[in-house]
């Protein structure tokens, strides 16, 4: 039944009060009994639904007061209705509110024997009434879509935009995954860092010299450039890529753009925001043929915001829950089958105490180290991703990559809190045969350069076995 027909049915009931439906809110408009002059009141459809839900939740109490007595129902409304606006209205217009609810229950359930001062309550009746009123709630997405900036009929914009964060251990190919999904000519890329601010993300006024006179012009940053790129290329999938999104205070950097991350089914922003900076607005309109003439900003439906996140980074800022829930997340696991080919020169000591330099496959080294770290309950996001080293690093100078990148990461970042013996040897024999404790990174590198085994004995043995088995296979 349409809501207007529903109201007509309500008005066929013998009653001292009148009832109308207001489409704007939407709301029910109803009158008092008119004994001292008729007055009119309104209550939103949403608040009526909430009142019926409150009655349903306290049905055992309300069932004792099916006949209207003003003092009783005033008490019920003030003590069992949760919304303060409804409580205030029912406190001064108790009977009109009772009458409104009575009519709704009667008509939505097709009940007979209507009596203006006797309400028929049961769980089934209330569920049916609530279900009917919910079916009449307007579609917010459709309404909000009407508020979006109007586009010409020939603007056939793609609806591909999304907000997505790729996360995982360092070197799992997060940036590579984004690169494979985006087109270079239609991608804007930036990197967040601890000093990234709103003006760095959006843009701001900056001084420029014109004819030896200083002027100020709006200079765009990555988000502004990305929005303009997407607006002007409606048939292309455009992307804004943010590397290391959690290395900055992301919610602060986004500012009011935070609100735009909610999207409609059409993939455009669900809630437009007013562009408060006139210089920014003027710049956007000058570059998009007045696309934002309404003064409201949206993220176009063909613009995706893609980001990478590595929570093992010591400089990270936590992402708050409200910010995170507006993003999709994709975890990228360590996939050794996709590791680059190449070896690392490692001096390793065998069970007989002999030290020899082995060319250890990078993938074998990563597997063995990650296994040792996992056994010591090191978090997964601190393990070595399969692409922690790339092909160039391995092929050009594996030793430099080992000392300058892997050892540094393991010693200073992963195992800095007294856990270095998980991977590294605690003592190393010097040239005189004395056992010297390995306590500094400098000592680690000096002993490696002297072709001494600097790894834990069990890890060295495992790497020797893996390397020998590989050599015998080939």
UniProtKB/TrEMBL annotation:
SUPFAM superfamilies: P-loop containing nucleoside triphosphate hydrolases. It holds the Pfam family AAA_5. Gene3D superfamilies: P-loop containing nucleotide triphosphate hydrolases. Residues 168-326 form the ATPase dynein-related AAA domain. It comes from the Bacteria. InterPro entries: ATPase_dyneun-rel_AAA (IPR011704), Methyl-DNA_Rec/Restrict_Enz (IPR052934), P-loop_NTPase (IPR027417). This is ATPase dynein-related AAA domain-containing protein. It comes from Vibrio zhanjiangensis.
């Amino acid at each position: 039944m349409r809501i207007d027909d529903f109201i007509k049915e309500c008005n066929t009931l013998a009653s001292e009060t009148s009832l109308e439906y207001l489409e704007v809110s939407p709301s029910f408009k109803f009158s008092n009994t008119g004994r001292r002059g008729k007055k009119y009141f309104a209550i939103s459809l949403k608040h009526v639904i909430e009142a019926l839900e409150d009655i349903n939740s306290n049905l055992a109490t309300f069932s004792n007061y099916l006949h209207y007595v003003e003092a009783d129902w005033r008490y019920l409304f003030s003590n069992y209705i949760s919304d303060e606006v409804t409580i205030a209205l029912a406190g001064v217009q108790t009977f009109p509110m009772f009458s409104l609810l009575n009519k709704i229950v009667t008509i939505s359930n097709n009940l007979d024997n209507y009596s203006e001062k006797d309400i028929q309550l049961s769980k089934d009746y209330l569920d049916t009434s609530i279900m009917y009123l919910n079916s009449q709630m307007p579609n917010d997405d459709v309404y909000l879509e009407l508020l979006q900036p109007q586009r010409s009929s020939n603007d056939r914009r793609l609806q591909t935009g999304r907000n997505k964060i790729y996360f995982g251990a360092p070197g799992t190919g997060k940036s590579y995954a984004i690169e494979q999904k985006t087109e270079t000519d239609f991608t804007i890329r930036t990197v967040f860092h601890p000093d990234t601010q709103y003006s760095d993300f959006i843009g701001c006024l900056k001084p420029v010299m014109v004819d030896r006179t200083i002027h100020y012009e709006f200079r765009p940053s990555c988000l502004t450039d990305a929005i303009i790129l997407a607006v002007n290329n409606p048939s292309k999938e455009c992307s804004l890529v943010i590397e290391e999104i959690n290395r900055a205070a992301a919610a602060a950097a986004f500012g009011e753009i935070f609100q735009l991350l909610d999207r409609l089914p059409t993939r455009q922003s669900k809630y437009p925001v007013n562009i408060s900076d006139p210089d920014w607005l003027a710049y956007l309109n000058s570059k998009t043929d007045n696309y934002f003439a309404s003064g409201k900003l949206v993220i176009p439906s063909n613009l995706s915001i893609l980001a990478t996140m590595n929570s093992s980074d010591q400089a990270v800022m936590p992402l708050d829950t409200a910010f995170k829930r507006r993003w999709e997340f994709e975890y990228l696991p360590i996939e050794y089958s996709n590791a680059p080919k190449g070896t690392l020169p490692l001096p390793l000591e065998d069970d007989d105490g002999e030290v020899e330099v082995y060319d250890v496959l990078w993938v074998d080294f990563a597997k063995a180290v990650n296994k040792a770290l996992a056994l010591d309950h090191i978090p997964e996001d601190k393990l070595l991703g399969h692409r922690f080293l790339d092909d160039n690093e391995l092929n050009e100078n594996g030793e430099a990559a080992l000392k300058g990148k892997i050892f540094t990461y393991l010693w200073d970042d992963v195992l800095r809190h007294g856990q270095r013996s998980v991977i590294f040897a605690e003592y190393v024999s010097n040239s005189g045969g004395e056992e010297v404790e390995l306590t500094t990174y400098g000592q680690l590198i000096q002993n490696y350069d002297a072709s001494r085994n600097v790894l834990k004995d069990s890890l060295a043995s495992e790497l020797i076995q893996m390397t020998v088995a590989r050599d015998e296979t080939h």
